[in-house]
DNA sequence: TAGGCTTGCCTAGAGGTCCTAGGCAAATGA
DNA sequence: TCATTTGCCTAGGACCTCTAGGCAAGCCTA
């Protein structure tokens, strides 16, 4: 029998695709094994357990998201940067729902430090260079921005905005306007 | 043998307590059956399946949260109302993490309409009475508020704010100030 | 190129969760 | 009191997780 050539990285990559297809919570060791035409026991020499697999997936997604956002941010500042960041963030969540869900996993502090999780805050901070904000307002604003982006995207995906006819797109644009004017006049 | 006296409501209530103890994702039919000293098959005459159980839990949590928030809102307006709403929302999430997670479940439109999910938007709208906002700005603002509250609370719980020493409490208060001033001068 | 070593995927199997079908006994009420 | 309903049971299948141990493919070294 030819070997399937599994590695932790290939498994993680396949898990990411699987997540987007069937949802993060359905990313299972057996499903992944089926995908490679392999017995599920075979995966346990590459990943420790199902949780480990999901953590790897989360780390992958965080890195991808950070890349996207970082690209979007390049060469922009002020409201331009804010809008580019926000749209890149939201687009990633829509294009890769399973991966995006993965980014919300609670990682242990060690993994979080190693992963791109910290890069997010750093990049959000980069947006603020176009505004006149200094510590500790900067941290407060970073948390505010992150909260609003994540909150909007996750409520949108959960269908929380379907009850009202007002377009989700229009509200999003207004939210970005609101954030911009808020950052311009951050209450101190 | 004496009967355990199970009903869908008792199961849902117990599931809610279980969720807060062990996390929403660990609310399982078998765990619930163990809690009542009963075989898991016995629960299936009261609930359709595991998903049905979680939906009932979500509906319960949505109703509880709506009650809390509604109480907090009583007799207040303007920033007072905003702060009371936000704090009640956040407190519920902290006191009942499992239930709060349940409120984020994607409910089918039918269930969502019947449940208290719609009541949230309505109550958030009540906050805005103290501010000078009319449609469609009102809907945009409701979505914005909801996003920020949910985003903040869920990132906080996921540990996303631990990387920085700045107090989570302080940032929260500043976020409320920011929302207040944003609503006062909602960009149109 | 023959031997040994490492490593990848295997089989076997235990334990957990979800759920259905069908049975018996407790509660209800005529 | 006896029939009906209702509640919890046993049995069992399907799927997921994970461990232990085995065999053979591919890699080294001589």
UniProtKB/TrEMBL annotation, chains A, B:
A Pfam entry, by short name: TetR_N
SUPFAM superfamilies: Homeodomain-like, Tetracyclin repressor-like, C-terminal domain
Keywords linked to the UniProt accession: DNA-binding, Transcription, Transcription regulation
InterPro entries (alphabetical): Homeodomain-like_sf, HTH_TetR, MT1864/Rv1816-like_C, Tet_transcr_reg_TetR-rel_C_sf
Gene3D superfamilies reported in the protein's UniProt record: Homeodomain-like, Tetracycline Repressor, domain 2
Residue span, HTH tetR-type domain: 5-65
DNA-binding region(s) from the entry: 28-47
Protein name: TetR family transcriptional regulator
UniProt source species: Lentzea atacamensis
């Amino acid at each position: 029998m030819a070997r399937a050539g599994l590695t932790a990285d290939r498994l993680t990559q396949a898990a990411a695709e699987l997540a987007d297809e069937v949802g993060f919570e359905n990313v299972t060791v057996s499903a992944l094994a089926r995908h490679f035409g392999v017995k599920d026991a075979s995966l346990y020499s590459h990943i420790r357990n199902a949780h480990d697999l999901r953590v790897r997936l989360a780390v992958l997604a965080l890195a991808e998201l950070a890349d996207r956002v970082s690209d979007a941010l390049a060469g922009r500042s002020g409201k331009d940067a804010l809008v580019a960041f926000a749209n890149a963030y939201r687009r990633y969540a829509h294009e890769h729902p399973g991966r995006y869900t993965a980014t919300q996993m609670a990682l242990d502090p060690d993994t979080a430090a190693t992963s791109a999780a910290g890069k997010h805050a750093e990049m959000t901070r980069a947006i603020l260079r176009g505004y006149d904000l200094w510590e500790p307002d900067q941290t407060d604003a970073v948390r505010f921005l992150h909260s609003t982006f994540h909150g909007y995207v996750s409520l949108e995906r959960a269908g929380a905005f379907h009850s009202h006819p007002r377009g989700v797109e229009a509200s999003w644009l207004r939210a970005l306007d609101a954030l911009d004017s808020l950052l311009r006049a951050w209450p101190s």
